[in-house]
Fold these 2 entries.
Entry 1:
Amino acid sequence: MKQVSLGLNLSTKKTRKREFLEQMNKVVPWDVLVGVVEPHWPKSKTGRPPFAIETMLRIHYLQQWFGLSDPAMEEALHDMPVYREFAKLDGVLDRLPDESTILRFRHLLEKHDLATDMLRIVNDLLAYKGLLLKSGTAVDATLISAPSSTKNAEGKRDPQMHQTKKGNQWYFGMKAHIGVDADSGLVHSVEGTAANVNDVTQAHKLLHGKEVDAFADAGYQGAHKRPEAKGDVSWHVAMRPGKRKALDLNDPAQAITDKIERVKASIRAKVEHPFRVIKKQFGHVKVRYRGLEKNTAQLKTLFMLSNLWMVRGKLMAGGA
């Protein structure tokens, strides 16, 4: 006899997606971030009541974590109960945010540069909890690809994106430049530029001003000589690979130089972790929007969320 389903989900299995959302729900400081948006939230006395700011923030972060466009996010809210539950829309199927509502909320954040404020405030909270020390900074950059096709409405590539050569391969897109705490690896500064911008030109923008030491790879040679360089910061830049390869490890002095390079490399390695989180964990390998401003705002949101993800264990252990 064929069984009749009542449409109930009786599964007790906790999926990785649900577990991830439960963890992020605990570590994201929702009340504080809502307070950042609230002064800019439209106060309408007519028409349908707007969705709660926290609900829209949760939807915005779902887009970042799972690489969803505005139309895809609207469909996902209809299709996936776990997303509605996270956005506090569970059981409200008669009215869900459409893609236009989601788009307007993103434009609100971009217009007032709220991603910058949110990154700063979250980092202040992490510093207060002793998770962000800021005594030293490691800097680096990574390429984010952009569509190189001209088969779009404008019939041309994004004019703010450019191509650059890395090794023997050409890339088209932008660069994400970050400054991270040399101790914890948490991101405190983010800059977005076209892909052809030299890394060293952005080096001093990535310093927060309170560090004593700065660490960088060989691409930042000469950072301490630039006009904007600060005299109270000691730059520890990697030796060029060819020069290091030529070191004679049988010579005591050169062997010590090689050990120093290893120590510097171990500190610089901290900067790779945030890149891995946004690219592998969050799946951000291509730009989503046209123009540097929108994509840089998204990067600041992604790195803010990556900071929380990287210290989620300590935050949950401390009852965050």
Entry 2:
Amino acid sequence: MEKVICALWAPEGESRSDYAARILKTLPAALKAAGASGIRLNVRDATVDPATPLNQQWQEQQQDAVAQFWLPSANAIFRGPVDAVLADHGSRFEAWLVAESTIIPNADHAPQPGQRTWGWSQASFISFLPEQSWMNSVKHWHSHHARVAIDTQSNFEYVQNIIVRPLTDNAPAYGAFVEECFPLEAMTNPYIFFDAVGDEEKFARNTKDMTDSCAGFIDFAKIDIIPTSQFDFADLDD
């Protein structure tokens, strides 16, 4: 099995909230019928509007949703039905083959079939530092930053997806896709985000440690970080 990450763009004139509502109704079943499993959608709906100031943008226009799923093979000659479904659900899609590493599984607020997962999900398309080798960037990310992200934030789910290769011709050249889930209050309260409510010293330490660690492998000029609502459809596999 191979995992695929797809960025989706809404048709011109359709609001993100309307687009989110539409694809939640039809895309999961369509992907399942085309051969996908373990389907998850991340959408930019009204619930995550308060987190807009946390958005970081490289792409113009920026992604409106993300589809995550597994295929027996992501090879182009077998992916046609899935590509057709994705093309039918937006103005544009781009896809990447990834290798998933679950750092923090969501044990505290487990997704419920077809329902919005508790909290909110920060979906991050990141690029590695151009002046640093791919190997050293991954080493820093996996061997140092993962621990920092656990220790300095209130994340209750943390999944790293290293990009193996693009699957579409115009896919932006990211190095990884990361999904982290936080309490809703973390959208507007940085003390909650950095797990330091009522503790100024811890807040200063956590923000510095996180900023310093990110600077060790991320190209901040080429990232897209978007707030999303997570909807999991793994129940379709039953």
